[in-house]
Amino acid sequence: xxxxxxxxxxxxxxxxxxxxxxxxxxxxxxxxxxxxxxxxxxxxxxxxxxxxxxxxxxxxxxxxxxxxxxxxxxxxxxxxxxxxxxxxxxxxxxxxxxxx
Length: 100
Hints:
mainly alpha
């Protein structure tokens, strides 16, 4: 028994429309079939993400937040201006040049 189809209308940039027509012609299938195949591939790719991936990402984000707070200090914004930044870099450059 075939699956019930649902009609969808999409908008594509001209270059994607031309690519879709070309692929359908080359493969001898409809443009709709090319889109269905692409959706299937995307669904398979998404399903292959490890289940622990989200937990691992949360751990990384927590580590980064803790590191940021340790470096900046309790969420206070870093205040600087361009001239201070240039002067700091210049002083490091002069110091490294003098040490050589």
